[in-house]
Inverse folding.
């Protein structure tokens, strides 16, 4: 009887085993999938050679093919320029100058093919030395605490640019480099008052470099640093300009530990400056809960005569009240009229402890 039962189950076990193996084989059979984007190595300059790196793929590709494309400066409107399994490299041509290049990599195995694209290169430059056809210029308000922006002008050869800001006397003579002032944007400092500024632009292509210098600005103006005001020698925010910056140097919470959603959380932020550590009056402080729906929203407010800004938060129902939780707050301090992401601004994440 036992042998009969085993014989009756035997065919079923074989079918189940074969079905399992078939399903496993079907799951494993898949075309390659990209896990790391293809890249391009080499210098994007006329006469140079670029090389495609395939990136990383799953499902064991057995072959790769390449499609190089020429795109406009916005990396759109791309057209094919070279393709094939042997097209891993591309020689940059004069027709590519002023354009961006990109490569599409197609990975294949017995189960199919998948294509992934690289990021576009920088704008391709010429192998001739650049020449300025229009001089650089400067835009912005010429007062202490404001920012100036350089326009590199127009050049032949689609070069890349670097910048060096210079300080000159009130007549535009005796110019000298300003240490560290090598960005396209320059924040006017207190030391610049009564002087003029200019920017030297260096253009670079595969064929060499060239420089061109802007006209001088007007004489830098702006009110003299006001005397300290407020309690404890607080400085007016109008006295703060680069390289001096704001700092969120003090934070207090009342209560120190939140135990109920029925409590009001009072948060105080002290704003000081980096050069002397003095409190700052009139700095604008913004505070936001992270995530935003855990505490009530608060309007931006200015620091008082002691450098403090005070906020009273309602604790919303979505905030968990249990051990190990916290109320996270993003705080930002800025100078009125400044770019919120630049100038003398500062930012900080802080947290209040939660425990029932």
């Amino acid at each position: 009887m036992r042998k009969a039962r085993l014989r009756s189950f035997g065919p079923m076990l074989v079918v189940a085993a074969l079905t399992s193996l078939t399903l496993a084989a079907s799951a494993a059979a898949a075309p390659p999938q990209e896990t790391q984007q293809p890249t391009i190595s080499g210098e994007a300059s006329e006469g140079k050679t670029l090389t495609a790196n395939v990136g990383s793929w799953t499902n064991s590709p057995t072959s790769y093919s390449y499609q190089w494309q020429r795109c406009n400066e916005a990396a759109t409107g791309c057209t094919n320029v070279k393709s094939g399994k042997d097209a891993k490299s591309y020689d940059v041509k004069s027709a590519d100058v002023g354009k961006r290049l990109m490569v599409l990599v197609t990975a294949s195995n017995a189960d199919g093919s998948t294509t992934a694209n690289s990021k576009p290169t920088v704008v391709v430059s010429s192998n001739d030395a650049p020449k300025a056809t229009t001089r650089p210029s400067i835009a912005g308000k010429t007062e202490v605490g404001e920012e100036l922006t350089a326009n590199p002008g127009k050049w032949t050869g689609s070069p890349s640019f670097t910048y060096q800001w210079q300080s000159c006397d009130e007549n535009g003579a005796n110019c000298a480099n300003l240490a560290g002032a090598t960005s396209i944007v320059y924040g006017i400092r207190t030391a610049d008052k009564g002087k003029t500024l200019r920017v030297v632009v260096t253009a670079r292509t595969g064929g060499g470099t060239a420089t061109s210098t802007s006209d001088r600005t007007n004489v830098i103006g702006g009110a003299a640093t006001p005397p300290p005001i407020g309690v404890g020698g607080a400085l007016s925010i109008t006295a703060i300009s680069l390289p001096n910056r704001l700092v969120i140097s003090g934070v207090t919470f009342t209560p120190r530990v939140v135990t109920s959603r029925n409590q009001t959380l009072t948060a105080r932020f002290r704003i000081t400056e980096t050069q002397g550590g003095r409190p700052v009056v009139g700095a604008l402080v913004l505070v936001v809960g992270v995530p935003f729906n855990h505490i009530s929203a608060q309007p931006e407010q200015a620091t008082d005569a002691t450098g403090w800004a005070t906020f009273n938060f309602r604790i919303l129902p979505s905030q968990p009240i249990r051990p190990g939780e916290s109320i996270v707050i993003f705080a930002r301090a800025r100078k009125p009229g400044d770019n919120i992401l630049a100038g003398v601004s500062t930012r900080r994440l802080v947290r209040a402890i939660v425990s029932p």
In short: Residues 1-6, 21-27 have pLDDT under 50 and may be disordered. The chain has one helix and 28 strands. The first strand starts at residue 33 and ends at 36.
